[in-house]
Amino acid sequence: MKQVLPTLVVGKPLPVNLSNSGTDASSTASEQFTLKKIDRFKTYTDRFTDETQRAQNGEFVCLVLDIKNVGTAEGDTCTSAHWVGADGKVVCSIDTIGRVCEAKGLPDSILGQDSPGPGQYISGTISYDVPTDQPGAIAVEGRNGMLLFRIDYAPESATVKVTQ
User: Which Gene3D superfamilies match (predicted)?
Assistant: First the structure.
């Protein structure tokens, strides 16, 4: 049976139950993800090397996010992702460690920030290097490998467009 993931869209908060990871049965790790903005770039200048970096898979996608802990246990903002094309093509390890977003004047990366405690939130960016030959989705997973949600993405250069 194919797993249907909830879709995170710009401006619409999405609650995600991470697990029962607290010290007692009543503690639950749950976070609310809000996608504030999506930006895309083909290149960026690395501030450490002053070299122009090009997207290896097609283009860089920067996601500007708020992540709020709405549970009763410590949250966990450590995520990874893979891209799945409309034809089933999978591209793994697409995270670019946030440098592209920072280089383009967007907020700092979420990676490296402390996970928010109950009632707290963090803001920042996550960036990915995704293909541009077709529409697809960025499938985001938590530290334990559990798929959390997807972000549908149709690059401008895709020959087929995603419609909603």
Answer: 2.60.40.1240
> What residues contact 100, with CB distance under 8 A and at least 6 apart?
41, 44, 53, 60, 62, 127
Q: Is 55 exposed, middle or buried (0-12, 13-18, 19+ CB in 10 A)?
A: buried
Instruction: Say how far apart CA 127 and CA 137 lie, in whole Å.
Output: 14
The CATH code that applies to domain 14-79+93-133 is 2.60.40
Per domain, the residue ranges of the chain are 14-79+93-133
Nearest Cα to 71, choosing from 16, 142, 153?
Answer: 16
Write the pLDDT tens digit of every residue in 106-151: 888 887 778 888 999 999 998 888 998 889 999 988 877 788 899 9
What is the pLDDT at residue 101? 86
